Fold these 2 entries.
Entry 1:
Amino acid sequence: MRYSKQRESILEVVNQSSNHPTAEMIYWEVKKQIPNISLGTVYRNLNALVDASLIKRIHIQDVDHYDHRKDEHYHFCCRECQTLYDLEATDIKNLIQKVEKKEQVKIDDYEILFYGTCMHCMKKGLREWN
Amino acid sequence: MRYSKQRESILEVVNQSSNHPTAEMIYWEVKKQIPNISLGTVYRNLNALVDASLIKRIHIQDVDHYDHRKDEHYHFCCRECQTLYDLEATDIKNLIQKVEKKEQVKIDDYEILFYGTCMHCMKKGLREWN
DNA sequence: GTAACTGCAAATCCTTTGCTATGGA
DNA sequence: TCCATAGCAAAGGATTTGCAGTTAC
């Protein structure tokens, strides 16, 4: 893969985002640095970066989002405020081991997404603890 | 939600499928019973059934699939043969409890998908155990 | 009777692709 | 120099929507 300032900028935006941007959001962000970049270029580069495993595509509630790969994590989507959080990958090695053993498969990646209510929205009383 | 034979047939096809059909596959299957059904009707009903939580939409490798909700399960996608398997939801209650406690959230649903190599393909030597 | 539902076709939305020009190695 | 990559605009594909007719209740 050859260098281009467009691809560098796109990768940088994804890596520095904590909010799992969509292609469109990435496009507008990169446009601040490279005003004449085209949306086609953003899509092409996102695909190239996903193929190269430099970033990850995650599909949440009917929309594609892009995610840096800095560490293993789960995702949590709050149904009240629609925020998408990163969660620590609690127990993941243990879980993978158990599943591999029980099902006799070899696992090399995962996508773990929980839905529910975040602490913030629970405090607002939008949902009771139970 | 009012009764219609189209919706009944669509729900039945999803419930009786073990292969996580796409909208298109469901359309062709329902067409055997109701030859003049339109694709638009299939999409409309799939959305209605998902909204009513009678079926689940799962997005795997860039394609939407539909899944019955008979029991809790994980999904496993084999990178070699592209088969999508249902796996037992090993340890799920324990995992949810741990995550809820650690992250202070309330979880009411999840999507857990593993990627890797299935037993079948490993036996064919497409990938080594390790 | 009437509101929900259907089939059909057109519209919409997101993403990809073809083309020519540019730029990195 | 040469080939990957860019920008632009048109094409593509999946899904949704508007409308007029039909059906469940």
Note: Residues 72 and 92 of chain A are 9 Å apart (CA to CA).
Entry 2:
Amino acid sequence: MKISSWNVNSVRARIINLIGYLKSSRPDILMIQEIKTEEKNFPFNDFKNLGYKSHVFGQKSYNGVAFLSKININKVNLEFIKDENNQSRIIVGDIKNKSQLIKLINIYVPNGNPIGTKKYEYKKNWYNSFTKKIKNTLIKNENIIIGGDFNVIPEEIDVYDYKKYENDALFKLEIRKKYRELINLGFHDIYRYFKKDKQEFTFWDYMAGAWQKNHGMRIDHFLVSTNLLTSIKNINIDKKPRSKIKPSDHVPIELILN
DNA sequence: ATGGCCGAGATCCTCGGA
């Protein structure tokens, strides 16, 4: 089974690229973030035509997350955590893989910049409530996959020039510690688990030729609970969509399960 | 060293993103 995650930066602006990706990569489930539209304007039929059912937590203009899936997703939940700003940033559901029940969690964590503002506090609060909820969820089900745009650069190797980001909400130590606290509940950053010393990115800014210069960062992640680790076969960052016409600034990451 | 790009929604600019 292949589960992909992609911050598409508007589902409607990206529809051609999305269809192309689904046709060539054929994930069983695609978790998308920053759909930037309400459910009533979501392109359900484009995905249905390719065999995908959509579960949408929309929002006008900003944020918004969704599952596109060829397999059943049960107990879809848009209220896994209470969002203090009522933003659409998380969608949760249950899937089955070879008789294992897995809780699948698709997140779009607040950016948090600039630091020292209420946006930064919002990001910290978001991580605090998310980690607390995950801690409780682990007691009930030890099979958890969290994927999405975490807006965290985990380590120095995960950005083209870490010194530029030490006072940025994506790399500031305080935020990296929040990410570390989540992992320490019993998760693995699957990309880093499989590729110990490799430098690859999932995001390149639209500005200043960042893509051409490979000025990127790794901020989209899959965290898998320890219990599920032996069920994970591989992980891959698919950089091809970043070279297309009208690309998202993020690329898909693909988790392969046995 | 600096500034540069997109998308949405309501105009011809602002906000948000990372």
Note: Residues 9-10, 12-13, 34, 36-37, 60-62, 111-113, 119, 151, 165, 168-170, 203, 205-210, 217, 219, 246, 249 of chain A lie near DNA strand B (CB under 10 Å from a C1').
